[in-house]
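Before relying on records like the one below, remember that each one covers exactly one chain. Contacts with other chains, cofactors or solvent are not represented anywhere in the record.
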Amino acid sequence: MDDVSIEGMCEYPLAVIMMTTFLAVLGGANTWEEIEQFGKAKVEWLKRFLPIHGYDMPSRDTYHRVFSLLNPEQFQQVFLPILSENMNTIRRELQVPNPNPSEKNSVDGIESQGEKVPNMQTLHIYDAADEVVVTAGINDRRNDEIPVARWLLETLNLKNSVVTLDAFYMRRETMKIIVNGGADYIVRLQEENQTSLFEVVEYAFYTIDLDTLRNGRAKKHFSITGEGNTSSLYGIKGEIYGNAVLSTETKTHDQDEMCTVYRIDAPEDTDRDTAWAKVNSYIMVVREIVPTDPKQYASSEIRYYMSSLKAIDEIYAGIIQHWVFENNQHCHMGDTYEKNKDATIYRTAFENLGQMMNLCISLQKMVKPLFQNISLKAMLMYMSWNIEEAIARMLSALDNETIITTLKNVKYDAVQTKKVAAKLAKIEEEAQA
């Protein structure tokens, strides 16, 4: 990051501000006051690896002011790739299982009702399998999220991936960007967003005897297997009839859920293909939820989708993965970091702190297997109580060769270079012994 400090006026190195904030947020802090209190409470520990000598820890105003001066685009370019571009390496070194091998990106927006920055929309694009933010943007509520979504999609390498979107983002130009990037898409249809197209797809299924899509077609079993963060997704099993019907039934302690997916080929319509890029499938999803408690009412809903994919199992996997991840992410952002309580005054500081939170959330989800047999919420509580032990636990999973290679690749000043060289020599000596 470019150092924004003014010589002679700033006593705190940028490294101290950034690293303290990162560790504080990793430990559950979500406001400048909490970050300040973390720094003061952990100052003796922080002195072991940060140049903190001869001054008190920064105040909340200092953290806030520095984050309001940092360039958000540079902040994103520096921090988000730490995980997104090194995912396999980090998993291998931390001995974390790989998730189900799929390239699915989910577009989702979260609105924050800050005390000083109300109605701020943060738009994220996630790697749905890893639940890791790969890029993000921010805009005021009075501005349209759609241009931000298009800009973010254009910055990504989408080749051979599947992008899932809610109906709000469904626009012709957005679909073209996805297709031109070499990706496929699954997008939900809602009457209030695309009235004409919604009615076309709804009518297409209305005029079909749905039983004929199932009857007489070859049946095969279907399942989603694998390991990873979206563990509630894996283990779903069902049956597929041809490439037209897919049905699943999931039982929990308090309800039974039946899901039936119907797929038909989108009609060959030149005008439609020109307007909506690469449309191959119309999809209808019928969900029925039956509580085990007889006093509660059963419920059902019907959703419609459009996709460039043709295989019904791929379409279903994308839809259900988007559902599961969207619910998990909104819950995690709201309950864990209470982002809506952030009292940031300046938009830039708000955006940069949000990027730091995204990085920490992604890292926490990735390392959860190291904290066996506890929930994510319990793991985060453990981190907030004892961040020193949590960091040690993560670093202890790395081998000496990885640590040595990483330290050698970091740029240091003259004083740090001597210290690091001495530590590296000691590590290598112990490794040989």
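DSSP finds 18 helices and eleven strands in the chain.
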